[in-house]
Design goal:
β2, α2 and β3 form a beta-alpha-beta unit. Helix content is 32%, strand content 22%. By secondary structure, it is α/β, with parallel strands linked by helices. The protein has one domain. The longest helix is centred in the N-terminal third of the chain and has 12 residues. The protein is built from 3 helices and 5 strands.
Length: 96
Amino acid sequence: MTTISIIGSGNMATAIGTRAAKHGHTIEIMSRNTAKAQALADQIGDRATVGTFGARPAGDIVIVAVLHTGAVEVVAHYGDALAGKILVDITMNRPG
């Protein structure tokens, strides 16, 4: 199966990571908050690991699961480490 890297450790990272792991994918959680990333990986189970925030993601698919206000900053921070990856941005800027 595929390795999926998720940048973020909140509600959407939890939902996506849990479901993807149930379907046999390996999940890498990357977050500025290492303790929160580890807690999420532990919750997901054996198919999840914690990656170093800012390092090249292990996954062929990288999901940006951060608040919309931080998405551009996160992608810029990773820069060339995202080259050749499928990048999925689930952020949404809601009016008001």
